[in-house]
Amino acid sequence: MSHPIDPVPIHLKVALTLKEAAEYSNIGINKIDYMLRQPNCPFVLYVGTKKLVKRKEFEAFISKKLIL
Hints:
- By secondary structure, this protein is an alpha+beta fold.
- Helices cover 38% and strands 16% of the residues.
- The protein has helices at residues 18-25, 29-36, 55-64; strands at 15-16, 44-47, 50-54.
- It is globular.
- 10% of the residues are buried.
- The model has no long low-confidence stretch (mean pLDDT 93).
- InterPro entries: Tn1545/Tn916_Xis (IPR038148), Tn916-Xis (IPR015122).
- It comes from Ruthenibacterium lactatiformans.
- GO terms for molecular function: DNA binding.
- Keywords: DNA-binding.
């Protein structure tokens, strides 16, 4: 007998997809993708060729910025 796995709420995830990060922050997917492509981006996590957003680092980065 298998038990269905409940999805983890976005605010509890360690890493977010681009779509989740956009929903969470109300910042567009293209803008987040642009920020992830910048050298030394503090919140990018590569899993193979897939780019994920480290949620806590992303929150800290945004909280320090006035303009993106």
